[in-house]
């Protein structure tokens, strides 16, 4: 049945409309230079993403976030019990005070014996011993100060905060659970800096320059021009294509969602094409044709179509430069009483 329709629609080129169709306007087919775009499927992903792990031991006493929460920078994520860490800090502070007292006493002894040694009242051995003790006390003081810094840092590890504004993508710990250093607790990413990632076929890699602007189109129709992009220096083993990354503008709120698919367009070298208005086409299912003018009548001719360009359609075959076609194919069809040809 379909073959019969094709025959009925297109196998009648010798049939033509009458000279009465001369009032129908015609369009001169010419070659036009139009921008060519390579459209790729791309996915949005964060530039900064990672996980948060425990750096001290303890029991989880509070969890301030859950999966899908948007958190600002510095927000409390997880609180770990700090009993032992607080005790360690108090112990370090006490050791620091003892070291400071030792330094004060050793330094006063050194000064006293130094005056006596100049007067010849004490032996050099006694002065050297006081000097050694003063130096040892100074070293112990430095060690005590470092211990306080370490103890304060260990106490800070019990409060886990967000390193940047982002979204929590995974939680691996529950309230009351005991954690150890190195155990992963949360995972997330920053929504402020996002990018699109696509696979660029090898044959187009030479056409992408550092200054080439890319155009991204989101599912809601929003389009952006991206000027910062990066092409990997090696191909993916599976697809034999290059990974292409293009940075999106920074955003204050998560508008562009992680993982959504978008269209990434790259401009190619402009080429001359045959373009005709869409109104010149006569369509029947997936088959297309135009009315071409020959002397004082129109003849129906099948054409093969390419891409659409703002109200125009690219002709791949069926027409040549200089052909004249009816601007309104359905007007010609109407003048023939609804028949494709007379």
TrEMBL record:
Source superkingdom: Bacteria
Alphabetical keyword list: Signal
Domain CzcB-like C-terminal circularly permuted SH3-like intervals: 276-328
Name under which the protein is recorded: Efflux RND transporter periplasmic adaptor subunit
Domain spans labelled Multidrug resistance protein MdtA-like alpha-helical hairpin: 89-158
Pfam families reported for this sequence: BSH_RND, CzcB_C, HH_MFP_RND
InterPro entries according to UniProt: CzcB_C (IPR058649), MdtA-like_BSH (IPR058625), MdtA-like_HH (IPR058624), RND_pump_MFP (IPR006143)
Lineage, opening ranks: Bacteria, Pseudomonadati, Pseudomonadota, Gammaproteobacteria, Vibrionales
Single GO MF annotation: efflux transmembrane transporter activity
GO cellular-component term (any): efflux pump complex
